Amino acid sequence: MKIRTRALLLLALSALILFGCRSGSREGGTEKIEISFFTMQLRPVFDDYFNELFAEFEKLHPNVKIKWMDYPAEGYDTKLITSFMGSDPPDVINLTPQMLPTFVSRGVLQSSQQAFPKEVVDKYFPNVIRDACQIKGKTYALPWYLATGVTMCNMKIFQEAGLTQEDIPKTSQEMKGIARIIREKTDKFPFFPIYTEAGAFRGFFISAGVPILDENETRALFNTPKGLEVFKFWTDIYKEGLVPSEALTAMHRRPIELYKNGKLAVFNSGPQFLKHVKADAPDVYKNTVVRPGIQWKDQEIYTVDVHIIVLSKKSKHPELAAKFAAFVTNASNQLKFCKLTTIIPSVMEAAHDPYFTEVEDTPEGKARKISAEAIQKAIVVRTPNKHPGKLFREMSKIVESVCLEEMTAEEGLGILEERWNEILGE
Amino acid sequence: MAYTFLLPTLVILGMFMFYPIFRAFLLSFWQYTPLSPDNRFVGISNYTQLFSDAEFWGALKNSFLYLLVVPVIIILSLGLSLLVEPKIPFINFFRACYYLPVVTMMVVVALVWSKIFETDFGLLNTFLRRLGFLGQNQSIPWLTSKKLALFTVMSVTAWKGLGYYMVIFIAGLRSIPPQLIEASMIDGCKPHQTLFHVKIPMLWPYITLVGIISSISALQVFEEIYIMTRGQVGTSTLVFHIYDTGIWIQQGGEQEMGYACSMGVLFFFIIFAFSLLNYRIMRRFHTTETG
Amino acid sequence: MGLKYLILCLLVVVFVGPFFWLLSVALRESGNIYSLNLIPENPTLKNFSDTWTKFNLYRPFLNSCGVAAATMFLNILLCSLAAYPLARLRFPGRQVIFFLILSTMMIPFQLYMIPLFLFCRRIGLDNNLLGIILPTSVGAFGIFLIKQYYHTIPKDLEEAARIDGAGEFSIWWRIMFPLTKPALATLAIFVFVANWSNFLWPLIIIDDIELYTMPLRIAKLSGEFIEKTQYMAAGAVIAITPVIVVFLILQRYFIRGISLGAVKG
Fold it and tell me: Which CATH superfamily hosts domain C59-263?
């Protein structure tokens, strides 16, 4: 009998826990119009900023209530798709340009003139609009916050290898030379480029000015002498052992741990990671020097990561949703947001604010200035509209094969071009 | 009356197993992506596409390669059981230790071993460098080489499962009539002769049982691959590939559920063949036991 | 003999060593996780408290407990219910039902996991802990395990009760069910442990991080904290400790479960 009562208690307890855990969408029994706003990994850090923003919008539109739903970055697309399939799809959504083709192909996003009127769209950097928000000439999104890459150098490792600040590389070619020295004189790694995550290798081509696809996305354009030079350069670096072997399969956050543990000399990333380094590895932060992103030879190409705002076709209140999207991404709100963390606004007016032109003399301040200046020349690495997953997989496999010496760079690039043209032709 | 007893079970099995199984076969003849406007019936075109799908064949090949872990498991767990079967002092402690990995989550096991097998700074390579087997900047690419990665992952599967099969073999060893062992000793056999000529033949039903169970397990591995390599570096196996094709959506994944279901159907036939074999063996085993 | 113990001890290092290393990393402060010293210089419990509170690790812990417990109880109940008529009663279609249930043991989950996902979404069980519990609330393994045990119970008790005029259900509830306690304990442990570490299905069906079970959360933790291995290690230790504790206390049932399940069929 003791077992039975214990069992019943446990059963009751588990039932309680379960019902407590059921994710329920609260029934909004209000007369107000509800606009739901889906965002990626912004809570709880920016709770105050957003609550203020919502309050302001609600003051301007008293019959509206903003429902904020924030989700972690991993699994975000899955969550979004499930929401669209459910009964209560979101109205205004935070996306990245990498996810845009998926949702456009499923036909769930707005692209009308009313949603994105010209006067609104013109306020943003035109290159960002073109690369991050448009597909086949139609605008599907408004740009939000951006970050460009900067180069962070751990001077302690440089010193260990007998190098000084003068030696900090500005180009990939210089980087290769420095890498050899660091590898020879220390047991640390010089740098950690990402080779295969989500078609990361395209970044190498783009930084060297090699185009990936043609305008209509029907042909691969990277198999040229210049493209081969780039392909060879980076695969040779891997083969020479100048980068950790996991660079072949690692995701883009892996270098952060190595850098924080003092095992990585040069680290390229958005300036927001400086905060993590400051918090978790203060002695490394002390020795960190920030420089602009490393270029290819004499190019001046900056790739940016950007977040965008899209609108759902299924929204019950499209005009209000469009107004809200424009509000979130307007100059003053973006400027406020950027003062909270090291990101850059996509609105031209905000980017020219003194906050970005007159900066303090710290790694973080310098990083901000460098990033803001780079925006005008920045390129967003576009995701192909058709079958991006397949294209990236093919690229990863070929990069793997060449780096692991199963085929030569020439063979690899040729095969990759063939496969891409096949897939694009489907 | 009996059916009242069976009702909840039949309802649950019906809804959550038989109906989805039926739909899996149906869906394999469709092109289906959630929310897509292009979903349509495509007949056997998924299956014909499979024939020319290099990734699929790669995953299939890897799944069968994975079966190489079975003889390793059999030999090692048999060895372990021979070691721990005799009741010497503290033997229960040792048995519990070897069984420990079996009860821990594969997720944790895979995470720990991926850190240990990390190429450049991982524990194993650092250890080997300390011992002098590797040079200062040398590393063995356990999880970053196409030749090694699959076997590295397989070794983790083996490591985790050994305790389980060890227990089965202990039961097997206990089932050998002691008279047989005594008889062979009296006949002047040395221990290893007893092992090979008496114990192992008597253990044969157990060996085949372990073989089949571990084969079915090996064909179904998922977590190890998901956590340790995400299917890269030549480690994608069938279950992972089905998940990757049908459910995975990050980085442009297209959720081709119809196509994934056709792979699932093929997978079913493979597993079914093994399971049938399993059933036959268990039946014969049962009658040997009681007969 | 000494050699034998040496080998046994070396093997302990092989099988338990990695977990010690995990614990050691979890106890380290920030800094070098790659050093070979297993004993950290300044052991700290901060990583544990951080992951438990800051990253709310208690949520997936409770989720896993709830799901595993619920599945365990449902299995005990439903498998026993289903096994009784198969073991003891004669009724039309008995062979068919038996065969049907047996066949489920030969069908791999991966065949139907995608349609199951679509179905659960249609009936609203997606992103819901019941979506994990219900599909696994009864299974052929449990049914046959209990059925096997029923066969070992002498028929006299039932016969006596039938003569006294008791209905089948009260015979089952008052006599048969309580007598199967050892088998139920074995089944309970088996289901609990299997469910606790279940990964693939929860991965497919659950989206919300608040509803994650422990394995899902640990996997995501390693992605989120790819920069802070100590957190991942602390989370992992929290994840595996409950089952290890249960295992140490109830070793017999584990071992018996294997022999019963695998060997006797």
Answer: MetI-like (1.10.3720.10)
